[in-house]
Task: structure prediction
Amino acid sequence: MRAEVVGVGTELLLGQIANTNARWISERLADIGVDVLHHQVVGDNLDRIADALRHALSRADVVIATGGLGPTQDDITRQAVALVAGATLVRHADLEEMIRQKFAGVGRTMPESNLVQADVPEGARVILPGRGTAPGLVLDVGGVRTYALPGVPAEMAEMMESTVLPELAALAGPAAIVSRIIRCVGMAESRIAELLDDLFRRSDNPTLAYLAGGGEVRVRLTAKATSREEARALIEPVLEEVVGRIGDFVFTTDDEELEEAVGRLLQAAGKALACAESLTGGELGARITSVAGASDYFRGSAVCYTAEAKRDILGVSQETLEGPGPVSPECAREMAAGGRRLFGADVAVAVTGAAGPEVHGGAGPGEVFVAIEAEGVSHQRRLRAPGDREMVRRWAEQAALDLVRRHLEGKPFPAGVVR
Amino acid sequence: MRAEVVGVGTELLLGQIANTNARWISERLADIGVDVLHHQVVGDNLDRIADALRHALSRADVVIATGGLGPTQDDITRQAVALVAGATLVRHADLEEMIRQKFAGVGRTMPESNLVQADVPEGARVILPGRGTAPGLVLDVGGVRTYALPGVPAEMAEMMESTVLPELAALAGPAAIVSRIIRCVGMAESRIAELLDDLFRRSDNPTLAYLAGGGEVRVRLTAKATSREEARALIEPVLEEVVGRIGDFVFTTDDEELEEAVGRLLQAAGKALACAESLTGGELGARITSVAGASDYFRGSAVCYTAEAKRDILGVSQETLEGPGPVSPECAREMAAGGRRLFGADVAVAVTGAAGPEVHGGAGPGEVFVAIEAEGVSHQRRLRAPGDREMVRRWAEQAALDLVRRHLEGKPFPAGVVR
Result:
């Protein structure tokens, strides 16, 4: 079953809000095995809404429109649906009564204009609203099931859950789409694509897709079957194969963030972590503490943005600051050791480097050193991060967190330059 | 000029990400007076991408496609554009060289598969990438200007700013929409709406809009005229009126972030700042150092997540930790004083509180204290922040940064609970 989602609203075309309704609806349709092949967005214009609906009706089995069911003059999805279906709008006395009562219930006078929400295309069914005052509409247009839902996310979601998803699940029969995401750090997207090339070409179900960004690569496996269990069973052997090939660059198959994976490992090992940061300015600590419960394993971070602070607070030697300089493996090592000592932590990581745009400590933008110190462990690593200030910081954080992950998982540290 | 935005990517249709690129592009096009009449989204399928492009070309003056320009097998927007334009793909030697150098520059071996990114439809221009390796494409198809941009938001935005927006602004000629944003912290949206109610109703050009979020309120004034200068002149008197009414809760009329405003003030005053953080975990320092040039005025931040670290590193007294506890004005004051001393800074701010979801130091989620210490200044403030962990942290940062702003601007500190 192929579905299409049509968003109606000039605010979407002005970029005032993102089309989160389409994202939410698509995700829920995938869960019940309905393919979404297109999204469209149009403004509050009768002809253009009607054209968009006709276009969707010409190629989909189900059309879900959101928005334009409110009481104001620019809410005209109702008219467009009627136009496309060749039906006239008829005022429903029971809807009129419901709307009047909703207003009375909150002690407000109802503007008469609100009653347009009681107008329904002849032959359409109505989905009664729980929250708002706008009823949803259901009708068949040339054999294509068509839903018109309110644009307010909570009102839309309520009708999807109560009516649309159960109806479509019944129509689609026993079918489900399940995705699993494999998240990797320290290996380039193109290298991963090379390693998986034959699987990508050969595997129809599950299919493979890549998504790179934020200093990591995600490999998504999506399977289709008659039940979620069966879809999961189709994914399992391919997931194992993919993880086997990418090896210890995989940090999770549970779609958790790297800081969540690190937190989980620290929690399990009963170890405490501290950081010493320069170019990341506190972002490393901020990411670690964005996870609820981080106080169980996180002690703190010394953000030392100046050479003096590195010396006075972290105990980086004057020799190191004057010799190899603040952007060096020596400085990273002494920062990590100082952070470990200062906070009395089991494990400490440090990041130092030049975020850009200017040269810092003799190093060009993107030059970063990360270091880890723990009982019997002292390792430093250089990386050249691409992009602007924000990207360099993000890459530096990923590399630092990955050192902690590898240490706790007993995996080897990759040497040299990493991307 | 009518534009259409075509998003390419199966991840959009599976609902794994929202189409934020379309939102961002639409907002920027509105700024230069280009109307966006449609958005479309299609998956990674050659025929469907080509159909979507043809449909857009049939009704728009400008088509902007995003996504599908990466190096992997599912990136086929390049082929679809060539197909629709009736052009063959030709490998560009100079692009090949650029891509090889980008890999060499970060010390990585380039997988040969990456070179598909050097393929360009005959007759197309190329937008060179700063961040990623995917060039953007520009071509005219049947008289319609067509852009294909990468799907990674930062790479897309870079090419929009450098090339697409300036080109379209020039094509669109003398019609401009100009927006000015007044950003306020410490006053509720409903209070601001009350203060501006008559302006909101009366003013057609510029129009007023409110946007609340991230611990601040933005008032946007948007004027339309035949030139940017004329639009700006329409805005000016209304801007002054709005700023006059909201008073010292306005932190900028230049759409800068609060951390940028604070950086600008510190730079001008020649003062150095340090932080002491608990619940924000380093995010306060991270925000301050997200501004290029922060090393001129930022010394560092002591992120002390445990009571021991607050005592040992910041010198918070055992009495305070055992008496009023870590979430108290006393603790905030001693943290700020400790941070100022530790980093030898002119001004220091501290944040302590309970981010949630659990109770911390006897305080419920959302209970936060911020403090500022400077020569002759010692001020603490309690706030009750709404929402989840992330929102509470954000509100705490805003309140702390606002103390610095008010101190440097010579404005009074607001007392008591703030929302």
About this structure: The longest strand of chain B covers residues 216-225. The first helix of chain B runs from residue 10 to 13.
